[in-house]
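ATP-binding cassette subfamily C protein CydC: structure tokens wanted.
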Amino acid sequence: MTTGALPRRGLSAYAILRPARGRLLVAVLAGAGAAGCAVALAAVSAWLISRAALHPPILHLMVAIVAVRACGLGRGVLRYLERLIGHDAAFRVLAGVRVTLYRRLEVLAPAGLADFRRADLAQRLASDVDAVLDLVTRVLLPYAVAALVGLASVLMVGALVPVAGLTLAAALLATGVAVPLLQRAAVRRADARLAPLRAELATGVVDLVHGMPDLVAYAAADGHRDHLARIDARLTAAARRSAAAAGLGAAVTALCTGVSVLAGLLAGAAAVRAGSLHGELLALVVLTPLAVFEIAGPLPAAAQRYATARASLRRLAEIWTAPDPLTGGSRAGASVPRPRPAGAPGAHPAAAPVPELRLAGVTAGWTAGRTAVAGFDLTLPPGSRVALVGPSGSGKSTVAALLVRFLDPRAGRVTLDGTDLCDIPADRVREIVGYLPEDAYLFDTTIGANLRIARPEASDAELLDALAAARLRDWVRTLPDGLETLVGEHGMALSGGQRRRLALARILLTGARVLILDEPGEHLDDATAGALVADLLAAAGDRTVLLITHRTADLEGWRVVRMAVPAR
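Answer:
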């Protein structure tokens, strides 16, 4: 399933199931065949036992005996096919939705995700996406199979005893339609709140785990735990109401089953006495509803899962329909030089020329109604060293996001050698302009694997050259495992300076001709931060460097551009 399979306006149940409709149709037919075999097995067995009690010639029973064997074998084979094909279709749909959403996140990140919390996004991409699997295997297939087999059973029983057939039809409609509607009216709010409450609880737990040192230091841990306990109590209450509705549905289903059997017995007995029904067919009329309700019984629970799945789909649709942070043509084909990474991370004599970047009268913001940068001008000549200085909230990181095209300006222009960045694909911009954010992420893997994110084909020698430019090679050579040393979660096995230098080595491995370094000395002492900035200057070679910082020390030789907090 491709991303084009889903409409841009959102994620609907029909839209996500449409690419697998062929497999789903086969699965429905196989499921209906298996359920039909189960009903036929009960009906034919009932007739066979009743007929055999009259001691007819054995040849009169041969067709029924063969039918019982065929139904028994067919039920198992068709059930296997239904599960195999149905789950194959479900997992294909699931994979398609995940890939589509990941690609959508790639487009949105980071500016388009400003209104989403990380733990909530993880919950949406895990539990909420898994609800799609329930939509196929526990909602669509049970309802489609029950509808087909229920209709055939009503027609069969109705042809023998019309009253029993009408009663069976009414009971099936009550189980499959009336009970779910009543459940929905009773617990609509509870089912709709399950997914958001789970997300809120997951977000709170992540905050508790990551913020535990600060919470303990400020004696706020108990208050945070109490808040989580209140969320958990609301989630438990919603789940309890949902479970109560499911129990009520099961009770009504059992009642409908009993009514159908009793109606079949009374109406069938009357028909036998009137001579309109053969006596051996009475068992068929009485026992068929039992087999049918084995299939229709899960429908109330399926309807309840559908309500939960719809709430999850709405949460996924919020990601899919989030406004694009890029307003220009992200797939335009503007002609710009393609950088070629050289073997050494310093000067790049074989790489493309260093371009000029310019911001002219730029106004931009991360969220609607809030301006982070207003009417800002900046020019980065080839090979220049520019320091962007200003207090927090002045828009320094927003300027970096504009230059790497994480978002587009609301007004003004950002140009690369005179070409508007809105006319250059975002991925091409990031091949030319490299960005080292303040919170550069280190993966829980080895030093070498973290570096090869920038250049997967890089040799060990090239990695060591990049580490040398970042003043880490000698340290890495002292490690027993060298480049295979694990850095720990978020790089916690390294010091703050080592984490920043490793992230710097990674960006030096790219072919980027412009480097944007956001607060490289953050969380470091003055001496370490000054040494790191000096190393940056030496390692950049002939490339343009934009240094974003709030520190004014150690900027000798840099052109300093000061920013102020814009008026809100």
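The first strand starts at residue 357 and ends at 364. The first helix runs from residue 13 to 17.

Cheers.
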